[in-house]
Amino acid sequence: MLTYQDCVGLCDLSEEEVEAIAEHEHIPEIVAAELGCYLVHSEEGVPMIRRIILEDIETAVRRGDKKHALTLRLALKHFVDTHPLAKVGAA
Fold first, then answer.
1. pLDDT of residue 23
2. Does the residue 9 lie in any domain?
């Protein structure tokens, strides 16, 4: 049986990136890992994940959660660094 950590390891996303998808979509993290795996391997999915993380950052800032906003900013930086299609203007 696969664990959550196994699924994250197979989806080409960090745990923080998966958590951002789960937060944005209001779904369990294991489901977010599956969704993220699908999105990260599709042309339109990589920019979508970038937008998801950006929207999560905006939400955290609006509610005054600076620590969570910073965590999400670091997740976004990692995502952009490891997925070239996530860069603004890419494609």
1. 98
2. yes
